[in-house]
Design goal:
Elements: H1 3-16, H2 26-38, E1 42-48, E2 52-59, E3 65-67, E4 83-85, H3 98-101, E5 109-116, E6 122-130
Antiparallel strand pairs: 1-2, 1-6, 2-3, 4-5, 5-6
């Protein structure tokens, strides 16, 4: 990621203070909408900083923190498009990821969309997943 974009992302994360403060339950509604739209039981809102992925809202699981290198959303963080992957185990971008391989989880279906600040920073993604491929 270009240094200027990474700096803008860090500044946006700090301005919103979502990773260190108390959980904002209003954001769980966004995760619920994402899960409903995708027809899956699990969805999260992820903030990705320079070292970690912070699940700041979730439905279907308890939000956690993982390393950025394990994050599925970090792979497409700079991508402005919605991504839908029917079976992540068959996609070279994610097949070896610990969320797919069984080390952390067994994600098959994965969809994510960028969450963009008014200033244009893509510091987060909303993601949906399930352990079954979706056709």
């Amino acid at each position: 990621m270009p240094a200027a974009l990474e700096t803008a992302r860090r500044e946006a994360i700090a301005a919103y203070d979502l990773t260190d403060g108390p959980r904002m339950l209003d954001l769980d509604g966004l995760a619920q909408v994402a899960a409903a739209l995708c027809g899956v039981p699990t969805a999260v809102v992820n903030i990705i900083d320079e070292r970690h992925q912070h699940q700041i809202a979730a439905v279907g699981l308890e939000p956690t923190i993982c390393s950025r290198e394990d994050s599925m959303c970090a792979v497409t963080l700079d991508d402005p498009k919605l991504r839908v992957v029917r079976d992540a185990s068959e996609d070279e971008r994610w097949a070896a990821n610990p969320f797919v391989s069984g080390e952390i989880a067994n994600v098959r279906f994965y969809a994510s969309s960028p969450l963009v600040t008014p200033e244009g920073s893509r510091s987060a993604r909303s993601a949906c997943s399930t352990s079954s491929p979706v056709s």
